[in-house]
Amino acid sequence: MSNDIVVHILDDEESVRKSLAFLISTFGYPVRIHGSAADFLAGRPYPLGHCLITDLQMPEMDGLQLLRQLRKDETPLPTIVLTGHGDVSMAVAAMKEGAVDFIEKPFEDTLLKDAIEALTGKSRAAAASDRDHQDVLDRLSSLSPRERQVFEGIVAGKSNKSIAMECELSPRTVEVYRANVMGKMHCRTLPGLVRMAMNAGVEIGDGAASEAH
């Protein structure tokens, strides 16, 4: 593994920081840990090849505020945000602020490893995930009007229940449309779908706090 790549871990809970640091070190990456956004910001600027994994819910300055600050200061870093169940709308907002990916907790170790490899440009899958703009538009055009409604609800971070109420459908029917959308868009994950929506210039609302899907 290249020594130029360093993974920064930002979380206000010490046990989480240590657990993530140990896990990521087993992937072969050097790790630096930070207990607060202020601590992380104090270490700037970071060299090319460094990346960040941050929690969203933190005191004083949360992950979303941190991303905004990095953009404002023109010192962005490739970032993965970790979100608890029910924070999907915040994670979507984080991607609008420049986060590359988000992962819902709890997660499989391999999912985090793949995300880091994509983040550091070490995975061929990362290059494949950068959908061609026209290709995304073509896939969007294949959606039916109802599927497009569901698509827009998904990328806004809304729950199946919320989408069902807005579209006057049953949650079960929304699940079927959701599966159709993922199939037609050739996408398996919510972060991937959000990236495709942003690529296509689809207006992404902030959504309401997401419920269980």
UniProtKB/TrEMBL annotation:
Can you name one GO molecular function term for this protein? Answer: DNA binding
Specify the Response regulatory domain's residue ranges. 6-120
Pfam families with a match to the protein in the record: GerE, Response_reg
Q: Which PROSITE patterns match?
A: HTH_LUXR_1, HTH_LUXR_2, RESPONSE_REGULATORY
Annotated HTH luxR-type domain ranges read 136-201
Question: SMART domains this protein is in?
Answer: HTH_LUXR, REC
- List the keywords (alphabetical): DNA-binding, Phosphoprotein, Transcription, Transcription regulation, Two-component regulatory system
**Which terms does the UniProt entry file under GO BP?**
phosphorelay signal transduction system; regulation of DNA-templated transcription
Q: Residue positions of the PTM 4-aspartylphosphate?
A: D55
Membrane-crossing segments per the record = none
Please give the CDD domains that the UniProt record associates with this protein. Answer: LuxR_C_like, REC_FixJ
Supply the InterPro entries for this chain: CheY-like_superfamily, Sig_transdc_resp-reg_C-effctor, Sig_transdc_resp-reg_receiver, Tscrpt_reg_LuxR_C, WH-like_DNA-bd_sf
Q: Enumerate the NCBIfam families for this protein.
A: PRK09390.1
Protein's name according to its UniProt entry: Response regulator
Taxon lineage: Bacteria, Pseudomonadati, Pseudomonadota, Alphaproteobacteria, Hyphomicrobiales
